[in-house]
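Marked as duplicate of an earlier ticket. Keeping the data here for the record.
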Amino acid sequence: MPGEVLSQNEIDALLSALSTGEMDAEELKKEEQEKKVKVYDFKRALRFSKDQIRSLTRMHDNFARILTTFFSAQLRTFVQISVVSTDQIPYEEFIRSIPNMTVLNVFEVPPLDGRILMEVNPNIAYAILDRLLGGRGASVNNVDGLTEIETKIMSNVFERSFENYREAWVNLVDIDPLMTDFEVNPQFLQMVSPNETVVVISLDTTIGETTGMINICIPHVVLEPIIPKLSVHYWMQNTDKKERKPEEFENLQKRIQKAEVSVISELGGSSITVEDFLALSVGDVIELEKRIDEPLTVKIGDIPKFTAQPGKVNKKMAIQILDIIKGGEEDHG
């Protein structure tokens, strides 16, 4: 068992106590020889390492950013969502920690087994509902009296929000979230056994002036197949640049060569007032700022690339490339 690392202040205090006689070195040796017993609660089985918990936190930091963007676009108001904690606790303890009446969204995440629960505090759920129905985002917290229309609106918006969960998991496994249940009473929801270890990620959520929590509960059975991937070694391995095969470069080059781009040849430009523009009629002449003997500018997309001179080929208007514009190719690819 590795020894505990002391800070410099603790070392100074220990040396001071030994020198003044407050503490006896022999007594310290006896304490070291005694077996140290650590209390372990089997009801709170810790099945995930700190490293794995950090990986889950990192994933849900990304999910929180995606949710913030999603709800901002849907609700047209200030939205801020961030991860505040990631804990592993028994399922029974999680159920006891949430309100008696709340919004519970249950999702399957194939190809993984089991189901994931997203619990939304009623304050947040009603603020979202109020904004969707044209209100200011006020919360009445009357979740036990949801009408069929309110239930349908809520379940639809949370189902669409959870579709973004796929993007947060993309580095681990390609999941396909599917909403299977919508409930308001936790006592009617039994996903796993009471003593089953679950990971609970708590998201601090602000919708307009309303604040509350969104909790994501992931049972151990869901994460079990991908536990080896929840390590720093796996994440670092996946961030390393992989060498591409020569044929991949050839295929990429062929696809780029077939890509269509717009070619624009500008005869010239001019500036006029809005009054003159409104007064234009058929037959009017606009004087351009370019002389007839000056080369034209050819743009690829919106980027100047070449100079050219106008002409005709088989009775059709055409241009002949004269030169490459310096900086146009190097600066813009």
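See parent ticket for discussion. The first helix runs from residue 8 to 20.
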